[in-house]
């Protein structure tokens, strides 16, 4: 599972600066996608090739009138959900009573945390840090977030306590398609989960156990095995106390990362809102198979349907590889079609692609439309092979591959998608220079 790191501390200690530093490259990727806005609070980041989620909790003042009253509900949830807390303090200001009450508060919540002394640039770091020994924290780092100093090493250290583990394959269901049903509150996830599981053709296996995150439900439909990742907590055992609110972004992000195919549920009545775009952005970044379900279609007047469809097509054009279904979870309309798209996306996302086929398609594409000249030399693309699945990664070797224009890369993507009939999944292309 992807570790979640929460940034906590008084205002102005540098939380947003660190957040931006950690998520910079990932954010840029999202910013390139037209029509995508981003909730600043939750970000994706990487340490080496290890992904993690970082949360900027913001707004904890920690004054002596009691932290709880001051702490926004979201901050509490974020701390609760995180695997590690980075408690940030300001090296230039020295130890502040508010820091002390915040430390006390974290201890009371039984959260292990690391102390991050920020803004050590241009001052004696050891002296500045010694001021904070009084907090009695074992794990302490000195960084300068705005310069990036000490940041990589700190993150690597913090992540070390979370062994990188592959997604655990369910032993009883080794080949099962993991389907995550995600979406904002009230779009109809619970209703849809019940529909997906309640179909006549579905045999649900184990009474779902609980994890801290979502519920994983194994079942069979026809001759296929599925594991439904239920972020709405529909089938949670009654006696299991819910420690976090029903909808949680972190839980959703984790479910997406753990899925083969994500069913993103939206509400036809409300159109596409920023949070839908945010979740969609994450699905794309994570490279997951994707099916869009526009729910509550039953309540939409016939004369509005065309308009909604064209509006969706326009705003979701960058995710046009995903099938869109207009469904009514309430009445069960369109649910069977969802399964068709889920199966197709799974098949595409996990297909084994042969070097021969990939190279042949590359040759055809180059023959039809050669890459441009760069500095009087033509870019040569020689052969291709598969670099991974879910999402399919196609590695193309050649010379001057660093100069391949984005438009040409998109052209190749389009050709591969068409020739291989890949649906419902992003296709990634990576170039290697082999001369
Ligand atoms: P937040 O309120 O905790 O999110 O704090 P910000 O990230 O907004 O930072 C508050 C101020 O501290 C800003 O003016 C930052 O430029 C500054 N700042 C953040 N990190 C550093 C640092 O490493 N060194 C210095 N000198 N200033 C920093
Ligand atoms: P969740 O918060 O995403 O799990 O949403 P719920 O499944 O709890 O649904 C929220 C509300 O929308 C409930 O009142 C549902 O009855 C209603 N709802 C769900 N699906 C549909 C649908 O297809 N059509 C209509 N009209 N209402 C629906």
From TrEMBL:
Transmembrane segments: none
Keywords: GTP-binding, Nucleotide-binding, Repeat, Ribosome biogenesis
Pfam families for the chain: KH_dom-like (PF14714), MMR_HSR1 (PF01926)
CDD domains, per the entry: EngA1, EngA2
Domain EngA-type G: residue ranges: 3-166, 177-350
UniProt cross-references to InterPro entries, sorted A to Z: AAA+_ATPase, G_ENGA, GTP-bd, GTPase_Der, KH_dom-like, KH_dom-like_a/b, P-loop_NTPase, Small_GTP-bd
GO molecular function: GTP binding; ribosome binding
Subunit field text: Associates with the 50S ribosomal subunit.
Record NCBIfam families: GTPase_EngA (TIGR03594), small_GTP (TIGR00231)
Function noted in UniProt: GTPase that plays an essential role in the late steps of ribosome biogenesis.
Protein name: GTPase Der
Gene transcribed to yield this protein: der
């Amino acid at each position: 599972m992807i570790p979640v790191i929460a940034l906590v501390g008084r205002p102005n200690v540098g939380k947003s600066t660190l957040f931006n530093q950690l998520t910079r490259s990932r954010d840029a990727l999202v910013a390139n996608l037209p029509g995508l806005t981003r909730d600043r609070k939750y970000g994706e980041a990487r340490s080496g090739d290890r992904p993690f989620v970082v949360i900027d909790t913001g707004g904890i003042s920690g004054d002596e009138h009691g932290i709880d009253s001051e702490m926004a509900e979201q901050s509490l949830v974020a701390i609760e959900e995180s695997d590690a807390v980075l408690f940030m303090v300001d090296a230039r200001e020295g130890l502040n009573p508010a820091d002390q009450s915040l430390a006390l508060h974290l201890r009371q919540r039984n959260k292990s945390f690391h102390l991050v002394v920020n803004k050590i640039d241009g001052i004696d770091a050891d002296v500045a840090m010694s001021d904070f020994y009084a907090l009695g924290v074992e794990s302490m780092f000195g960084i300068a977030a705005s310069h990036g100093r000490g940041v990589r090493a700190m993150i690597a250290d913090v992540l070390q306590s979370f062994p990188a583990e592959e997604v655990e394959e369910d032993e009883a269901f080794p080949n099962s398609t993991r389907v995550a049903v995600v979406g904002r509150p009230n779009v109809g996830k619970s209703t849809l989960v019940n529909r997906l599981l309640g179909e006549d053709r579905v045999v649900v296996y184990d009474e779902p156990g609980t994890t801290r995150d979502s519920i994983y439900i194994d079942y069979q439909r026809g001759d296929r095995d599925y594991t439904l990742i239920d972020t709405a907590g529909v089938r949670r055992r009654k006696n299991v106390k819910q420690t976090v609110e029903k909808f949680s972004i972190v839980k959703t992000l984790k479910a997406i990362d753990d899925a083969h195919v994500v069913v993103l549920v939206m509400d036809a009545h409300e159109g596409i809102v920023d949070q839908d775009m945010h979740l969609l952005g994450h699905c794309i970044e994570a490279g997951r198979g994707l099916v869009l379900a526009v729910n509550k279609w039953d309540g939409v007047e016939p004369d509005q349907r065309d308009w909604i469809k064209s509006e969706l097509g326009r705003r979701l054009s960058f995710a046009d590889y995903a099938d869109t279904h207009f469904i009514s979870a309430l009445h069960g309309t369109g649910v069977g079609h969802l399964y068709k798209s889920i199966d197709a996306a799974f098949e595409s996302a996990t297909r084994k692609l042969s070097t021969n086929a990939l190279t042949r398609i590359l040759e055809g594409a180059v023959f039809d439309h050669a890459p441009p000249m760069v500095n009087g030399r033509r870019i040569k693309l020689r052969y291709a092979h598969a670099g991974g699945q879910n999402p399919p990664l196609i590695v193309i070797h050649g010379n001057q591959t660093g100069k391949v224009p984005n438009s040409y890369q998109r052209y190749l993507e389009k050709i591969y998608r068409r020739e291989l009939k890949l649906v419902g999944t992003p296709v990634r292309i990576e170039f290697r220079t082999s001369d």
